[in-house]
Amino acid sequence: MTLSIEHLTGGYTQTPVIKDINFEVKNGELLGLIGLNGAGKSTTINHVIGLMRPMKGKIILDEIDLEQNPTQYKTKLAYIPELPILYDELTLKEHIELTIKAYEMNSEKAWQQAHKLLKTFRLENKLDWFPANFSKGMRQKVMIVCAFITDAELFVVDEPFLGLDPLAIDDLLKVINEKKQQGASILMSTHVLDTAEKYCDRFALLNEGELKAVGTLADFQKQFNLPNSSLNDIYLTIAKGERDE
Amino acid sequence: MNELWNSRTKQYQKMVMRYLKYVLNDHLILALLFFGGGIGLAYSNWLKEIHPGTWYIKPLVLIGGVLLTLLGNPVLLLKLPDKVFLVPKEKDIHQYLGKSVKRSLISVVLPTLIGNIILFPLLALEYHHVEAAVAITVTIFLGSMANVLRKYQALYFDTSLSQMWFHLVVMLIAVGLGVWFSPMGGLILMAINLIFRVVLLNQVFKTKRFNWNYAIDLENSRMQRLYHFFSLFTNVKQVGAEVKRRKYADGLVHILSGKPTLFTYLYPRIMIRSGNQGSLMLRLLLLGMVIEGYSQQIPLKVIVGGLTIYLMVIQMVDIYRPVHENVFIKIYPVSPDAAEKDLLSVMKRIILISAIFLTLIGLISNLSWNFLVASVVTQGIVAVILLKWFIPRYIKKLN
């Protein structure tokens, strides 16, 4: 499953926040979307998950165009927001049930996967609790479980590490890796560049709404003439350079 | 800190005045007149029947008096961000609280006064001397003030003697002394207790650490009680949802869901558990059922039956909004029409169940074909209007 973003221009008002963005997230690939605050990461994600309509350009998941066939596109997509969004009135179990209904999954199979994930994230004894009352990290785990029980082929993960304990971060990265092995594509926005460098296959670097570069760390080192530099160093050099211009 | 208190008091008064406009409406005043008149009449008749020296008057005064000393809460006007932004000013918080104490002491006067007015005839009957009755009344006043000061003391960490049981023991001793032995003795003891509370609170202000979380939670629950009261008369957006599991209502949730799809799974759960809509629906249904059960007038019962269903649905239909405020509804792979279709399906079930209840209860007092036919036809017409016209139009407007 490949996500193709073609000449995407969009924003919240008439003034575009992101301008002419082009990149792909390939089959079995984890692509890190990186950029400073206000670079356009969330706007890009909001377009990819279908919450905003592009001013120009296309978002295509394999051959399914989001604009032409939104329902079919959405069956293949799962999303983990930066801040957990949960129903106050539903228990953890009911959030999982709701996800199963939304994606019309086989209940038995989905619950098998759910129990596995609940165990991994240490939530299995909280099924009858209201997750809206959990801590931020626990709520984030609920979002992770609900997203990864689906058979989605594209996972959009927005700043997943905020609020998670180190063990949960490690578990999440393992789950992401498993999904990658199964052929899913993952688009992940993050500021935690050390982790991104270790786990992402490629990176898309956004700055002031424009795509500065797409590629692997080696590509970036070559492109910006910074051999042996870490992703963090390259990112800081580009960001500071842009700011000082 | 003084400036902050002044600006918050102004905002608070403005808010209270705005809602009081809705609370003090003609209907309420009329209802209060009837209610107060009825209770007053019953109370005066009861007073005529009892004689001075009846064994239970003194225990009754003691219980009533001690309960009156529990009235009153700190009016803190603190807000959640204060625990971040005001922490550096904690050394000056006692200035803010000093103003708040004055305000809270003034606020406790009115409810205690009403309570004492109710208690006074009983005191006059028992003691014959105005001085004794006044001494006990003042004792109770001072007790309620001491209780307010105790609550302020409890806003600080590591404070002793701020527990409720300690207050209750002192109140029982002071009011009991006044009621059984010496009204002046009780008054003096209570005055000493109040002075002790003032001294203790001043010391706490100077030496102890302020418990921000507790104080903010306390104020928040006071404000929520106030908002809930106002919400009986008008819409109050600050009323927080009181989400409860309500496991006992799972059967009803399943009936309303039918064969659940995404939205029929969601709507009944939010309705039943969110507190606001579910309890409103139940209150309306119960009120309708009471009128249906007691009235003999067929036309009135038929109109009330239809009106109950209409009112229930126009309140419940608002469930569409919170469900759609969750961004996942836009991300899930579901057709946009499903939300409306499923809302109509849940509403259909609510109408059907309510209509059955209303008609069955109505049949108890009017077991006749006339009532049955008129009730079923009217509710059918109301259902068609709501399902075919009102709900689709409402959803269209929201979208």
From TrEMBL, chain A:
SMART domains: AAA. This is ABC transporter ATP-binding protein. It comes from the Bacteria. It holds the Pfam family ABC_tran. Keywords: ATP-binding, Nucleotide-binding, Transport. GO terms for molecular function: ATP binding; ATP hydrolysis activity. Residues 3-233 form the ABC transporter domain. The keyword Transport applies. InterPro entries: AAA+_ATPase, ABC_transporter-like_ATP-bd, ABC_transporter-like_CS, ABC_Transporter_VariousFunc, P-loop_NTPase. The keyword Cell cycle does not apply. SUPFAM superfamilies: P-loop containing nucleoside triphosphate hydrolases.
